[in-house]
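hey can u check if this looks right to u? its 111 residues, i copy pasted from the old doc so theres a chance i mangled smth
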Amino acid sequence: QAQLAESGGGSVQPGGSLRLSCTASGINIELFVMHWYRQAAGNQRELVASITPAGTTNYDDSVKGRFTISRDNDKNTIFLEMNSLKSEDTAIYYCHTVRWWGQGIQVTVSS
């Protein structure tokens, strides 16, 4: 049974930074495209960033230049480095691949 576990969320002031991690068990992330999604209160879940097995990345326009997705295959973990955070980045962030989702982790950006 595959599991994805997010960590690293929390509260930060506008302009601050956070680094999310997603560690997989039961699957080898090296084989899959990995994604970060987010869902703000009252909104639909949206795709934030993706990374392919080859390391090609893709970002939603709202986070380009501020967020960086990366992977460490040896640790079976992906990361989302979030800089210059804005209040509109406040959401629950989810790790996802194929049919598996993490439980989600809260990110709050507020002064």
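The CA atoms of residues 58 and 64 lie 9 Å apart.
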